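Note to self: keep these together.
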Amino acid sequence: MSLEPPSRQTRLSDLFQNKPFWIWNIKEHKREDILTHGNCCFNHILGLPAKDGIEKPLFDYQKIIFDSLEQNKHLWIKKATGLGITELMLRYIVWLTLKDDSLKDSHICIITGPRIDLAINLIDRMKRLFYQFEKKITFDTKETILELNGVRIEAFPSHHLDAMRGLPNVSFILLDEADFFPPGQQQDARDVCERYIAKSNPHIVMISTPNAPGGLFQTIEIEPENECLYKRIFLDYTCGLGKIYTKEEIEKAKTSPGFEREYNLKYLGNVGNLFSLQDIEAAITSEEEYNPDIGNREAITIMGVDTGWASSYFGIVIVSWFNQKIHVMYASHFKNPQLKAMLNLVSDLRMKYMVDKICVDGSDPSFIYSLKERLGEFPVDYHTVPKENYQQMIVEPIPFTKQQYEFLVHDKVVLENKALKIHPKFQDLVIAMKSAYVEGTTFVKERSANNDLLDALSQCLSKFKSRTVNTLSHL
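Structure:
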């Protein structure tokens, strides 16, 4: 870093030495502000963060993060957009480097998404924190690096983490919007960070608005408390209401299809284009409309199974036809399950819901063989039976993969005809429908969420052939 005149280097260090980040007690803060002529804390000396040109103080929800940083080495923060958490973290990092010399000769790493401009932007934001001083401070470092008080702060794109491996003394790692790293880079980023725990025991802070189910953030969120490295903090939009957000801003945001993800911490992935959001919302029932935990002996009941092993989830959906509607009775999925556990579960669910037929994707004959054997349906080798007889089987192989788009079109018709009822407890299935995305006649799984549940639902609905509501019960 170079300044003009040189004496200002000393002044910069003196300004922040031993200054608190923020004085959280309002009366104490006002008193210190008067006594020091505005040099009461790091943020007042540097200049307060601003929104729409209006300076903002630090809020109580930001104190939660500050206190957690002071007491914990590893933080996971799932937050609503616009709360100013990235700004808070950048300021906190700068404060750590300038308040004393404890981090001298260490490396602070910031991991961004795969685009280099994201890394450049975060470092530029940190440099701009100093531009308010009398004479503009310039930094003689490359765009992705900032050096302060002997500390090297460097931003790394998520696809270029090899350069981050092997650093000798890492004191702090920030992963910004980590749930939006490409799927193949999320685990790698986590691994690279956590390998430093035994080496230099740095702070590791992950912050993000939630993205898709099954990603890095949900993986950490569902880890058992006694196995999780991270203190988990949840900050939805209500934390900032009347502080960083106005009521009018939130009401306007609620009209967006992405509101639940951007502001209410729901894993939704991308907004899909296959099903109408209005049709999906219309299909969601009240809690009291029906009880999905009680099977209906008089109903026609179908189970759909989408097998997924090492590479995806194993999804099961059960629907029952009664009161002139198709009701979702069960919808759940499992990551990397054991074959025996899934055979037991399917068998138990069949008995509980009095299932008439089990549809299984025909691309997994080994599971179909095992399930037929478990249920005592012969012949186990169904390939010895003419395909036109498959519909008479309890466990029916479905040529799903080859006809997926046709199945989805049928799903859409069922939904548009108001023939489907979804209990609100099945939010993972709702997310699957809201994020379902097609290009032409191709279902784009990479842009869709909870594909296993949608596939299993499609297999169920395929058995309700009629496209009119009144005759939809015909099998």
